[in-house]
Specification:
By secondary structure, the chain is mainly α. 40% of the residues lie in helices and 7% in strands. InterPro entries: SusD-like_N, SusD_RagB_dom, TPR-like_helical_dom_sf.
Length: 504
C-alpha cells in the first residue's frame, strides 16, 4: 500500500502507538512510553513493527499544525511575506511579541514531540522483534531519520548556545524531557541519529513504488549537511553535501518551474517532502491561494509576498514568475487562462501571491485538489529539502571556509537563466538562497538569525507592489528573539526542569 494512502487512512492503531492529545496538561507531560504497558499486545511481530513505522508519517497528515500552516508561521516572520489576513496570534509571532501560548506555536511544538516519541518507541522496541533483518533495518533507519528531522526543527527554533532545546531521554522514556545545556548538544544528538539512519537506510531508487515518501539514505546525508551548517561545522557540512552530490542519485531539473509540478513529486531534485494527496497532508498550497479563490475554491489568503522579495530577483531570473504572481501575469486556474488578479480584484495586501504551489489548481474540474475547501490539500508534494538547497549548503560551507564556492552556486544560477559569477561572496550566497528557496520550508527567518542579519533587516518596514507600507518596522532583539518562547504550560508542568528562553 502506498505511503500516501497509509498516511491518509491513519492505519496505525491509535490506542497502541498514538499519544492521547486531548488531556489538559502540556505535551511533554503527556508523553508516555507505549512499549512497556502494551507489551502483551504490541511489539510482537513484523506487522507491529511496520504499523509503528507507518505511525512515524501519520502526523504529517495533520494538514494544519505541522507542515500545513502551523510550522510556517515561524517562516512567515521573515521579510519575504506578510500574514495576509487579520489574525492576532499570527501577527504577534511576526512581530516577535508572542508568548508561546498561541495555538500556532503550541500545536507545532506538540506534534514534534509526539513524532519524536513514536520514533523512540520504534528504536527501543523493534530491535527485539524476530523479523527479517533488512526490513528491521529499514524500519529502524526511518525512526532515527524522522526523530532527527523533528529534533532539528525544534533545536533551530528553541535552542541557543546559552540553552538547548528539551529532549526526551531515549534510554529512560519515563523521565520528563530534559533541557540540554546548549543547542550544540542538540546538534550532536541529531548528527548521531542521522549517521545511524544513513547506515540503515537504502537509496531512494531501491525503494518499492509503495515506499516512495519514506526515509532514504541521501535524505539522511542531506539533513546531516544541513545540521552541520547550522552548527557552523562547515567542513562536515561540505562533506555531507558532497555525499549527496557525489552519490549520483540527484540532479537539478532543467526547468525551475517543473520542480513544483505533481508529475515531479519524486524527480531527481527530490530529497525530502511532505507526501501529499487530496485526503490530507500539507494544506500550504491552499493556504497561499487567494482568499476565497475568486469564488472557485476556498483559498485562505495567507503568506503574501512582499515587494522586498520581488525586488531581490535579478532581471531575467526565471525563478521570479515561477515563484510569484504579479499584476498582469497569465496563469492557469481550474482549466482556464486568467490574468492576475482575476477580474482585477484581489484580497492580497501586497498585490502579490506565491505561484510556486499553484499547479494543482490549474486543472479543470479540480482533479488534483481536495473537494473540501476547508482542508485544501493537493496532490503536490511540498518540498522540505531539495537538491538545489544541498548545492547552496555546499557553496555556503565552502565560502565560510575561505574556499571558492562558485561551481555549486552557479549550477543554481545557470538553471535560473542567469550568468555565472566568479569569486562568490557570502552576500551572493545569501541572495541565491533567498530567491531560490522563497516560500519554502528552508526558513528565511532562521537564515537571517544565524547570519546575524535579522535585527537590521526587521528594523525596516515591508511594502506592497504599489510601494505602500504593508507591515511596519519591527523591534528585533537578538538577545531574545533569535529563539522562540518555550510554551509556558510545559514549563509550569515541568516543575522547574524546563527554563524559559532568556527575555521571553
Amino acid at each position: 500500500m502506498k505511503l500516501k494512502n497509509i498516511i491518509s487512512k491513519g492505519l496505525l492503531a491509535v490506542t497502541v502507538v498514538a499519544l492521547a492529545q486531548s488531556c489538559k496538561k502540556g505535551t511533554l507531560d503527556n508523553i508516555k512510553p507505549t512499549g512497556t504497558p502494551t507489551s502483551a499486545n504490541f511489539w510482537r511481530n513484523a506487522d507491529d513493527a511496520q504499523a509503528a513505522a507507518n505511525g512515524l508519517y501519520e502526523k504529517q497528515s495533520n494538514s494544519e499544525d505541522l507542515y500545513g500552516r502551523g510550522f510556517f508561521w515561524f517562516i512567515n516572520a521573515s521579510d519575504d511575506m506578510v500574514v495576509g489576513r487579520t489574525s492576532a496570534d499570527r501577527e504577534n509571532i511576526k512581530n516577535f511579541v508572542c508568548t508561546g501560548n498561541e495555538g500556532s506555536i503550541y500545536a507545532p511544538w506538540q506534534l514534534h514531540f509526539v513524532v519524536m516519541k513514536r520514533a523512540n518507541d520504534v528504536i527501543n522496541n523493534v530491535p527485539g522483534i524476530n523479523m527479517d533483518a533488512a526490513t528491521k533495518n529499514f524500519i529502524l533507519g526511518q525512526a532515527y531519520f524522522i526523530h532527527a528531522v523533528m529534533h532539528l526543527e525544534i533545536a533551530d527554533l528553541y535552542g541557543s548556545d546559552k540553552q538547548g532545546a528539551p529532549l526526551q531521554n531515549r534510554a529512560n522514556p519515563l523521565a520528563f524531557p530534559a533541557q540540554l545545556p546548549s543547542v550544540k548538544d542538540n546538534y550532536a544528538y541529531i548528527e548521531a541519529d542521522l549517521k545511524k539512519a544513513a547506515s540503515l537506510l537504502p537509496y531512494f531508487d531501491k525503494l518499492g513504488a509503495g515506499d516512495k515518501g519514506r526515509a532514504h539514505k541521501t535524505a539522511a546525508w542531506a539533513y546531516l549537511a544541513k545540521t552541520y551548517l547550522h552548527a557552523k561545522d562547515y567542513v562536515n557540512a561540505e562533506k555531507y553535501a558532497d555525499s549527496v552530490i557525489l552519490s549520483g542519485k540527484h540532479a537539478l531539473l532543467n526547468n525551475y518551474a517543473d520542480v513544483f509540478k505533481i508529475a515531479n513529486n519524486y524527480s531527481s531534485e527530490y530529497i525530502w517532502s511532505v507526501a501529499s494527496n487530496l485526503n490530507g497532508q500539507s494544506i500550504l498550497p491552499g493556504a497561499m491561494l487567494e482568499n476565497k479563490g475568486w469564488g472557485l475554491y476556498n483559498g485562505f489568503g495567507y503568506y503574501q509576498p512582499t515587494k522586498e522579495l520581488v525586488d531581490e530577483f535579478e532581471a531575467g531570473d526565471k525563478r521570479l514568475p515561477a515563484t510569484i504572481l504579479q499584476k498582469g501575469d497569465s496563469f492557469q486556474y481550474f482549466g482556464q487562462t486568467y490574468t492576475y488578479p482575476i477580474g482585477g480584484k484581489s484580497n492580497s495586501l501586497t498585490g502579490y501571491q506565491f505561484n510556486k504551489y499553484m499547479e494543482p489548481f490549474s486543472y479543470a474540474g479540480g482533479i488534483h485538489v481536495s473537494p473540501n475547501g476547508d482542508e485544501p490539500s493537493t496532490d503536490l508534494n511540498v518540498p522540505l529539502l531539495r537538491y538545489a538547497e544541498i548545492l547552496l549548503i555546499k557553496a555556503e560551507a565552502q565560502i565560510m571556509q575561505g574556499k571558492n564556492g562558485d561551481a555549486a552556486i552557479n549550477l543554481v544560477r545557470v538553471r535560473a537563466g542567469l550568468t555565472p559569477i566568479t569569486n562568490a561572496t557570502l552576500a551572493n550566497l545569501k541572495h541565491e538562497r533567498r530567491v531560490e528557496l522563497a516560500g519554502e520550508w528552508s526558513d528565511r527567518n532562521f537564515d537571517l538569525v544565524r547570519w546575524g542579519d535579522a535585527q537590521a533587516i526587521y528594523s525596516k518596514p515591508l511594502h506592497g507592489a504599489d510601494g505602500s507600507v504593508v507591515w511596519k518596522a519591527r523591534n528585533f532583539d537578538p538577545a531574545r528573539d533569535n529563539v522562540w518562547p518555550i510554551p509556558p504550560k510545559d514549563i509550569q508542568i515541568s516543575q522547574g526542569q524546563l527554563k524559559q528562553n532568556a527575555g521571553w
